[in-house]
Specification:
Elements (H helix, E strand, L loop, with lengths): L9 H5 L9 H24 L6 H13 L4 E2 H7 L7 H10 L3 E5 L7 E5 L1 H20 L6 H23 L8
Antiparallel strand pairs: 1-3, 2-3
Helix pairs in contact: 2-6, 3-5, 3-6
Length: 174
Amino acid sequence: MTRVAKRQSALQEEILQRKPFRSPAEEASLSVVRTASLMRRAMNSAVSPFGITQPQYNVLRILRGAGAGGLPTLTVRDRLVDEAPGITRLVNKLERAGLLRRERSTPDRRQVICCVTREGLALLKKVDPLIEAAAERGPTALTTREQRSLVHLLDKVRRKLSEAGRRGGRSAPA
């Protein structure tokens, strides 16, 4: 009987891994991480000519959505798509660049409210189409139905991870 070698997955080929993954779950997890990295790189390439990073773009986008009233710094942090290690550092850089302003809250002087400036809105207007194009580049390899299915599957994974996080990182029994 002849043994047929199992073909390597696309991920194994990309990362030049010769050994098989320990499990389909490991391969799926690493595939999501690798894909997110490639998407992040494409988005950073779109915004870097404007002197900002993708997380800084995300802060400005969140503040634009909040309107003239702005948002507290910690609320902005909680709404970030990709967790940033230091929201204060992100906000400081954007403020120095004149893209956002900070104000002390009237009812609670300890709270700092962030608002996007006119300059920040003008920058978003230039960058938005480039981010949109970068964000669409990968998913357009899929049909609309496949895209919806992918979103649904990733929702399930995030929900499971959120539940595990609330339990201190322990997974629920399968």
